[in-house]
Structures
1.
Amino acid sequence: MDWLQQLINGISLGSIYALIALGYTMVYGIIRLINFAHGDVFMIGSFVGFYAITGLGLSIIPALILAMAVCALLGVVIERIAYKRLRNASRIAALITAIGVSLLIEYGTIYFRGAQLEVFPSALPTKSFNLWGATISVQSILILSISVVLMIILQIVVRRTKVGKAMRAVSHDVEAARLMGINVDRTISATFAIGSALAGAAGVIFGIYYTKIEPLMGVIPGLKAFVAAVLGGIGIIPGAAIGGLVLGLVETLVSALGYSNWRDAAAFIILILILIFKPSGILGKNSREKV
Amino acid sequence: MKKSILSKLSYSVVSATLLAGLLSGCGAKGTGGTGDVIKIGVNLELSGAVASYGQSIAEGIDLGVEEINKNGGVDGKKIELIKIDNKSDAAEATNAAIKLTSQDKVTAIIGAATSGNTKAQVQIASDNKTVLLTPSGTSTDLTGTDGSVLDYIFRTCFIDPFQGSVAANFAATKLNVKKAAIFGDSANDYAKGLATSFKETFAAAGGTIVAEEAYASKDTDFRATLTRIKAANPEFVFIPGYYEEVGLIIKQAREMGITVPFMGGDGWDSPKLVELAGADALNNTFITNHYSSGDPDEKIQKFVTAFKGKFNDKSPDAFNALGYDSIYLLSDSIKRAGSTDGEKIKDAMAQTKDLALISGTFKFDEMHNPIKTATVLEYKDGKQVFNTKVNP
């Protein structure tokens, strides 16, 4: 049952992409900024989780929550310091700032702790069981469930709470939202906090699942998650989840067919194709650009 | 960039030659062979980026010289070492080689630890008809390219591809496997060299390669490819590569229920491998290496005891052993040449046969690469344990 095994491999990989992609897409949806520092927030989350488990001796769930809290704070700080004053600047200025923040976090981390890799403690049992010939590890089940739970919570926050309503309003029309008495700054901060917390969670999950963490670990997953967000339709929250899963499955499929050297290329070929043929993504509706 | 390095190099070469000429003009003592001593130059990385390699080799050489001199030296002559620190820098290595050949007039040079710093001395040694013996320079082209050998250049260590054929022989004869898979780094010369020689030797031993897959360095998810490998049902998986990826591959493979033996080369040799893969997952995996201090061989245990006695109970590593072997290899050649003439020594060294040393029994192929036994280590509960010795 090879295909079943590969399906499970793909979903596990895809759910991590999806968690990172959610933050990308939320931030883009609300201030039209591609936050390239997002992958590095993911890295910080991983290290916070690592130090929480090895240094503070926390178990997995408290470590996860701590990593999410630290990343939420980091996201808000980044937004307040770097992006807020650029809100009315050209988009390219904000984009370049985002790349600058990304490099600052990466090399700041290297400056403070060195570039050597760290081995994430296996905080979860490494048992696995058989399902119709496929081997499923307990870890991947837990990872998948954590991802699904977080996505459901996010959906509830966005759809059912006041903050979520404000976020949707700001994303729809900033000026109108302001006129309706919505605190736009606070809403944007909340978006960064939630998106960064998800990245932090993804960082911890990544650490558990892939063991090796290092200061530049956020670069490639960050870019892949960006592809996933575009694939699903950037700015659309369910789109990010779908895009992440599709990307994980496609990458696994490419490797499964024996072209593992083409796996990264495949992700970026998807980006190019989607930008040419359906720039609004899988779930996106064609919207006319207002002039 | 290249030009500036070249001009810097030629400048330092010129200045060093002038200096050497001046100094030797004042008090030339003749060649290293006259008198009661044989002068051997040691040109190593005693400081700088790869100082740990150079220092380890130097310790091995020191121990060897001490023993040889205590036992009457070479043909009654004591060995005198002239050590120069090349600071892990190619230009410095060239300067040191110039000083050793023209000023100190050494009989032969041992060094350097890395391929690059050895290469920087090749021209000088060849021009001066001085044997240059590198203890640990593994790059294939050091001793010559395309079948044309550089007469004066030799090495004590085996070259990278050699480990692949050793692994293949070990798999075929000791583990008795017929179906093997290869999972290697696709963009790395070291891994590709190992994979190619493994494939050739394993096929020659009657085995078949049932799957050949590749990964890129910095990859973290190998599960999709491992599923493919599992489906091919190999009895053995060869993973040439470095510990960063290998550790994750082994961990993920074991999680997926691939229980067959894994094997790799000295690129695995790092404590991080054990952390990444976990001690349990590493059981039933093997690596090839130059030597093991746990080898029960009498000669090796004698060396280990002697080394511990001289260096505060420190257990000798592979570099210590290679340094120690280098000085013995050289003194054996000088003895058989019966002279300190460079031309005679290189002929004698090329004809080295059945010379039993620490890292194996020596013989050189036509490219001056030693054909010797390699050691296979097995991981048991996260520790490297001596398993066996394998001939290529």
Note: Chain B has a mean pLDDT of 86.
2.
Amino acid sequence: MDLTLKVWRQKNSQAKGKMETYPISDISEDSSFLEMMDVLNGNLINSGKEPVAFDHDCREGICGMCSMYINGQAHGPMRGTTTCQLHMRSFRDGETIYIEPWRSGSMPVIKDLVVDRSAFDRIQQAGGFVSVNTSGNTQDANAVPIPKVNADKAFDAAACIGCAACVATCKNSSAMLFVAAKVSQYSYLPQGEVEAKDRVVNMVNQMDKEGFGNCTNTGACEVECPKGISLEYIARMNREYVSATISSEKK
Amino acid sequence: MEFLVSRTFYARGQTGQQLLLGAYSAMNRQIAKGKIQMFSRHEMVELVKVDGKARGIIARNLITGELERHSAHAVVIASGGYGNVFFLSTNAMGSNTTAAWKIHRNGAFFANPCYTQIHPTCIPRSGEHQSKLTLMSESLRNDGRIWVPKNLEDAEKIRSKTIKPTELKEEDRDYYLERRYPAFGNLVPRDVASRAAKERCDAGYGVNSTGEAVYLDFSAAIERYGKEKALVSGIKQPSVEKIIELGEEVVEQKYGNLFQMYEKIVAENPYKTPMMIYPAVHYTMGGVWVDYNLMTTIPGCYCIGEANFSDHGANRLGASALMQGLADGYFVLPYTIGDFLANDIRTGPISTDLKEFEIAEKNVSDTIDKLMSIKGDKPVDYFHKRLGKVMWEFAGMARNKEGLEHAISEIKTIRKEFWENVRIPGDKDEMNTELEKAGRVADFLELGELFAKDGLERSESRGRTF
Amino acid sequence: MALSGLFLIIFLVTHLVINSFTLAPSKELFNDAAHFMATNPVIYLMQYVLALGFIIHIGMGIKLTLQNRKARPKSYAYNQPSKNADLSSRSMIISGGLVIVFLILHLRDYFYEIKFVGLPSGTTDYDLVVNLFSSPIYTGVYVISFIVLGFHLNHGFKSAFQSVGANHKKYNPAIKIAGTAYSILISVGFSTIAVVHFINQYSFN
């Protein structure tokens, strides 16, 4: 198939950047979107230009690196799919494809389609862990009985890969779905319950400090999330946050 | 109702991911406490030795291109395997051998480089554009039956899409693993399964357009589960459709996300038609030599996880890479590194102004300048793909003397051409993905030769080496 | 936002009930109710609470919208927001803004008119209502405003529940249905009253 690509190019974080147009031909339907970008880059290098920089790693939908806003949707038109899992058979011959990086004030563009998601690291450093020193004290996980429903809910939340598609698609650039997933992953389990109050308050505060927007429950994040994280985690986090603020031991 | 004992601890087809998230969150806690500093988007490009001991590294900031000096009393390399020397592997695109290779070039022995594992159940290559191979969890082998058509004409028809695999009757199917290995059937060890698949495909029975694929069929399992479920649910005399429906539900519970992933990539429904699989490079048992304390032959330089050679010998068993990650990082190194550091208890901080750091940094800087100045006409991937093809053909699942000798000379040629003709656009003082790739491929072009040399030395059949 | 929104949701129901009294056979029912609302000390206090509710809701809405816009300094060259969020959820500031415009007109017509200008002698509150709705343009503006309000409520209702954490798969369908029913009730309810008065002017003469 032949396509016209409109790609965001930006030399570095200070540069203004703009959309460039690149025609491309002979792309196989079975190739993945990133393999198509590889072909584009090969063409660019051969014609003496700089290739498009983009984040990628596992190319299997689990690492959370690939992050392209394709034709106005995070990770492209398919649901429950990351950019690397998108295949060219989802596009028509002759189509024009717009490719942009995630856009959010809290995730500045580093170059072309690469953005800085260290805000997510800082949010996780604020509380996304269980304070246990397990060296030498490991306990058999099966010794702690946990209702399967809770374990399943925690696991569904733990499926979040931190790709930030939720932030990218949210009209308010809010990170609530991400924070809710990371908070819920722990708060459903007894080991995580111990610090649940501090965790939710600290992580939400860090999220606000990073400059992410506020949630107005449009639900766009849930639709675009490649791992299908549900809005119910946001509601749960809202409950946790309110209860923690009211009943916290801290002043 | 008892199923067969599960193969290993299993977390919905993302066991590794969840272990990673657990370790990552523990790391975050330490970062928040100020005990660890994290430098993301940095790459180690050289080891620094002072008085023969590993005392730090040179790292390149991948965003600004700056070279940084980091000093320490000991260095631990946990940089993973070198499967990407084959270009196509199940490894992530960023995986490389540079950190391990640099310490080897600084004197750390490298052991068993030619011991690589080729995993039998990966999604086959769909064309020339293929950039990596996707692993399907080996747990699928618990329930799938592997087969190719018995007759060459049927194989041809399937490849040209004239007939569908579901149309082939049982007697026209060759369940070759069950045929060749009656005791273990479809559960033979990885290397046996991989070699058997390649053998059938080389003989012309491959079932996809590249001729490199065999079937992993779940229809028997679906039927079996369906019957069991019907029995448990008290449904008397269930219809064939009902059995299949119930069976598919059970299979979805067990492997749902794997089947979904397969369908996304191949655009075929594995519930209704057999899955296609083919072996792919997955793990490297070889690596940097370490003693029982996980220290390399460079004092103060440790190497853990897939980057070292230990634990697996010539054949790695399922989930044992995860096991090694835990064993090395959690049970062993925390206790053995103290022994080395104890001797340095009176050594103050190591200064990064030492001559050794200056020299190391200059070496890196010179190499980068050299790479940038070549300005040939082939991109890095061109050389990487060529190397990968040579490795797969001559240093892959089955090797012989002529093939390996050919590989060695081919790799030498490719390396020479690389240093004369690679083209790296852009600048070194900013993010430059081609420069990053070039450094890694340069190291692969050296490792590849060592790999083939090692293979040549071993005139034996051991584990995964045939 | 959620709390002030929930408060206003309750207010709207009360207002609709009282307005529906204008459809009663006797005009005394509405006039008595209006009188009660104007003189009862508790209601008198609630006026201020209501005003506060509106101010908080509007103020926060504007503040949060500006904050959220700042969170994305550079917009997408090509975006398809309709693919994953419905229009009412994405345009609350606009529908809200239109409701504010309506509110100003509404307050001037009734609150300001009754409290500060004073009705001509002999005219009751009921008469004021009926007279105002004799104009087709006036009625049209009000009906359009009610539709916009319904649109605003369509997202607001469900969103308020989600924000306070009331999300459970057993009750979510009920909340969704209640939200839609509520917006239709308010929108159609108020509009019906307006239109009935407009039509009735012809049947009197």
Note: The helical segments of chain C are 2-20, 27-39, 41-70, 87-90, 92-117, 125-132, 136-163, 172-204.
